[in-house]
Design a protein that fits this description.
With 689 residues, this protein is mostly beta strands. It contains 10 helices and 40 strands. The protein folds into 4 domains: 155 residues, Sandwich (Immunoglobulin-like), CATH 2.60.40; 249 residues, Alpha/Beta hydrolase fold, catalytic domain (Rossmann fold, 3-Layer(aba) Sandwich); 110 residues, Immunoglobulin-like; 81 residues, Sandwich (Immunoglobulin-like). Helix 9 runs parallel beside helix 10. The protein starts with 7 loop residues before the first helix and ends with a strand.
Length: 689
């Protein structure tokens, strides 16, 4: 499952932090409980960081307490709040030590030095603005907790002023040979006005890799494969100014990761012997962390909220696909490799993954609810159900690459997903080839794996969701003997992103492209048909039950090739059936009934319109250049399609100049249209005061 490829030194450093203290204390006996010393507290970015000197010996358990009054004696602990507990050397960062092959400790602030490896650390996310005192006690295996309070040693002499805020991941280090920063976000069961609880265990550290871009640039969320790390997915899509957050999904047990979701009540992420739950609910711990990090990025890097993209492979590809399905209101598009898409699909090709899913989420028939979703795990993590659930508003587009020889997440599950996504008008592109689970870089469709394609999509720009394309390949029946070995869905068709989205009409140009593979070019047909569903409409808003008119014109000639009607369904979704797309391009126009002042591409005739200046302030002149033959008619329309009178009328001359007197046009967008025989030309007129 796309795991970290550890070098030999990392195998010997798997317990690097443990070695630091165990080698030095190997002969030291477990000692009697004594008082903690050197307690320090610092508050910033909505979190409080407690650190202290580690006690001599091993097997210690440290307990953190908070109070709104000084804790002068052990009696004060009765009314204090027990926040949680940590073990030996909690200042040691075991996760990054394993990944880098050297012992590393945490920083409590980007400007602070790393803590001692054998020191203690506990992080709290307060929910109220008030001064608080803190204390830390200790006990060792088989002994009672030493609740002695020593002012200024294990309990604060002065209160700490805390201000709730959205927690920020703390810079720990630059990664050196690997471009980017390593930051750590702490989470626990605390709920505040700024975020939901992030983990059932207090003071849990989560790594996130960061590549800082420019303000206003896109944000890319990277995700890694099961058993890998955030270092594997710390790279960008190649878009200008991009900021990248590579999010670590790590469980310190045999299950390795929770597929960027979370797990059920009672699951212990530190144990290998969890049993499948039969009751309770699944808490989306990891998904909450992703959303919290997105909020932080918006404040810290000021990324463009309309250009948030997700990328990943294997478990990370699953993350990217389901972010597009679960959160199209946040995600502009996703680029995915070899994802698992149907978690209740049977038979599961990977028994080890199924066993992990059973331990974290329950067995398939149990179908536990997922908190905050209003549905169950069987529906929430089934791509078919999610595509259907998003049919009315549309999911974010997905560009996906999968393999027929992938025996980890499986090829047969992809076919029912393809069918469901097509019927739900989800759009997007899908490619399949002979790749295995680990071979995406050298797979036949590798030349098409250009992540910069994500830049075509924005949340504030509409796009055409394609379905029932006549040039789709045949995926077969799920067996390796059936279907096309090298295949695609919708991939021959693309569009100009300079489309028009106005209250009365929606227009774009569709084109056909050749596809590149490792074995050569797969040429596009000269023409094809495809259903087109406008998605993410900004100004053109279809009304349920309303019929709309659409037309298709060849780019090469400007002449009409197709005319039809499309009625918006009960959800307000309108689909243009069987649109003819030519290799040189087709201009597709969808408009409200009775509105026919839509600009069309100029054909070979010379008929054209121009305005003396744009924008028009005061008087102006509308100039019409007529083609061969008698002059035709000129009309003026407002944005709603109502006709307005023009001063003067065309004469016999080849060029007509019609005045637009000052004050005639109200501020806004207007259309002027000239007709001459079977030719027409339209131009926009922008009027201002």
């Amino acid at each position: 499952m796309l795991v970290d490829r550890l070098n030999p030194s990392r195998h010997h450093a798997a317990l690097a932090c443990a070695l630091v203290w165990s080698l030095s204390l190997a002969t030291a006996p477990v000692v009697s409980a004594v008082t903690v010393t050197g307690l320090r507290a610092v508050h910033h970015d909505g979190q409080t960081f407690l650190s202290w000197n580690g006690l001599r010996g091993h097997g210690w358990r440290y307990r953190a307490y908070a109070s709104t009054a000084p804790m002068l004696s052990s009696l004060a602990l009765v009314d204090a709040t027990h926040l949680g507990q940590v073990g030996d050397s909690s200042a040691c960062d075991r996760r990054i030590s394993r990944l880098l092959g050297a012992p590393c400790s945490f920083r409590t602030d980007s400007a602070a030095a790393p803590l001692p490896l054998d020191g203690g650390l506990f992080v709290i996310t307060p929910d109220t603005e008030q001064p608080r005192w803190y204390a830390v006690t200790a006990d060792s295996a088989g002994l009672f907790e030493d609740r002695t309070m020593v002012f200024g040693a294990n309990t604060l002499a002065q209160p700490l002023n805390e201000v709730p805020a959205l927690p920020a991941p703390v810079w720990q280090r630059d990664l050196g040979l690997i471009a980017g920063e390593d930051r750590v976000l702490w989470g626990g069961p605390e709920a505040t006005a700024y975020r939901a609880p992030l983990w059932p265990v207090a003071s849990t550290a989560f790594h996130v890799g960061v590549l800082e871009g420019r303000p206003g640039g896109p944000l890319e969320l990277g995700a890694h494969g099961r058993g890998g790390s955030f270092i594997n997915s710390l790279f960008g899509a190649g878009l200008a100014g991009e900021t990248v957050l590579s999010i670590d999904d790590y469980l310190d047990n045999v299950d390795q990761g929770d597929f960027y979701l979370g797990y059920a009540t009672g699951f212990d992420p530190s144990r290998d012997d969890n049993q499948p739950p039969t009751s309770g609910a699944i808490t989306p711990w990891t998904e909450r962390r992703v959303l919290s990090l997105m909020q932080w990025s918006a404040a810290r890097f000021q990324h463009d909220a309309d250009r948030v993209y997700c990328m990943g492979a294997s478990m990370g590809g699953t993350f990217a696909a389901f972010m597009a399905l679960h959160h199209p209101e946040l995600v502009a598009a996703s680029f995915v490799f070899v994802p698992k898409l149907l978690f209740k699909y049977t038979p599961d090709p990977s028994p080890s993954i199924r066993s992990s899913l059973d331990r974290m989420w329950g067995q398939i028939p149990t179908d536990l609810p997922v908190l905050g979703t209003g549905t169950s795990i069987g529906v929430w993590m089934d791509g078919r159900d999610q595509a259907r659930a998003q049919r009315a508003s549309g999911s974010a587009p997905i560009m996906g690459f999968v393999g027929r020889n992938d025996v980890v997440v499986g090829w047969p599950e992809k076919l029912p997903f393809f069918a469901a996504a097509d019927s739900a008008l989800a759009g997007g592109y899908w490619f399949w080839d002979t790749r295995t689970h680990e071979a995406s870089r050298t797979a036949p469709w590798a030349p098409m794996q250009d992540t910069r394609y994500l830049g075509r999509f924005r949340r504030d720009r509409s796009w055409p969701a394609l379905s029932r394309c006549s040039a789709n390949s045949d995926p077969g029946d799920g067996s390796l003997a059936a279907g096309d070995t090298l295949g695609q869905i919708n991939a021959f068709v693309e569009w100009d992103t300079t489309l028009t989205d106005q209250p009365s009409y929606w227009q774009l140009t569709l084109r056909l492209r050749d596809l590149l593979s490792g074995s050569g070019t797969m040429p596009a047909p000269e023409s094809l048909t495809v259903d087109v569903t406008p998605r993410r409409l900004q100004r053109f808003r279809p009304l349920a039950g309303t019929p709309y008119v659409f037309s298709v014109r060849r780019v090469s000639t400007g002449r009409g090739a197709q005319f039809g009607t499309a009625t918006a369904d009960a959800q307000g979704v309108v689909t243009l059936r069987g649109v003819k797309v030519f290799k040189a391009g087709s201009v597709v126009t969808l408009q409200t009934p009775g509105f026919d002042a839509v600009p069309v591409p100029a054909g070979p005739a010379t008929l054209r319109l121009s305005v003396s200046r744009q924008p028009l302030s005061g008087a102006g002149v509308l100039e019409v250049h007529w083609g061969p033959g008698a002059p035709g008619t000129v009309e003026l329309f407002d944005i709603s399609g109502r006709r307005h009178a023009l001063s003067g009328s065309p004469g016999p001359e080849a060029i007509s100049r019609l005045p637009l007197p000052a004050g005639t046009l109200a501020p806004g967008l207007w259309f002027a249209r000239a007709r001459q025989g079977d030719r027409s030309a339209t131009t926009r007129v922008v009027a201002i005061r």
